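Aggregate trends can hide what the representation actually does to any particular protein. This step matters because it turns folding into a mapping between discrete strings. For completeness, the protein is quoted in full, as a sequence line and a line of structure tokens:
=====
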Amino acid sequence: MNNELKTAKILAGVGAVLGFAGHFGIIGAILELIGVYKISQIVRDKRIFNYLLWPTIFIYAIYAFGFLGILKDFHDTVTGVNYYNVETNFFFSSSFRVLLLFIALMIIPVIYKIKAYNLLGDYFGNDYFYKAATFTKWGLILFVILIGFVLYFIASIFVIIGYFSLPDEYYQPENNAEFN
């Protein structure tokens, strides 16, 4: 078990970097989830994994539906279909509605990511995960005025640093003997 945490932190860190890179997002998400699953087994708290698993699935589902909405808007633009009897502008377009829906649906997954980062910070005493949770929270709050994108970007950097700065070994406290 002495190399399991080292392997898990590298998997999660590389996954976070690949997810951060953009084109390899789904591969990065899978690697990060595998690493976090191993970390949650080592600390014997499956909440960490669950708090990251469901938001990841939910976020990719939102991306898929958002892509379909934008594709529909593009199709309507190309074919000249206009379902509105008013002058077409951004606020009446389906892209704007998709953006609002995207922001609304991102609240719950991001809250669970914040919980997972706080748990990782609690178990390892890693300040980078606390910073990631704080920047993620403020990024969510300020997402509407586009400053949130920058804060979420900074939170992603703190998560990457947090994974790679985890210790190579974890010593289980006596009172946490079972895998919850």
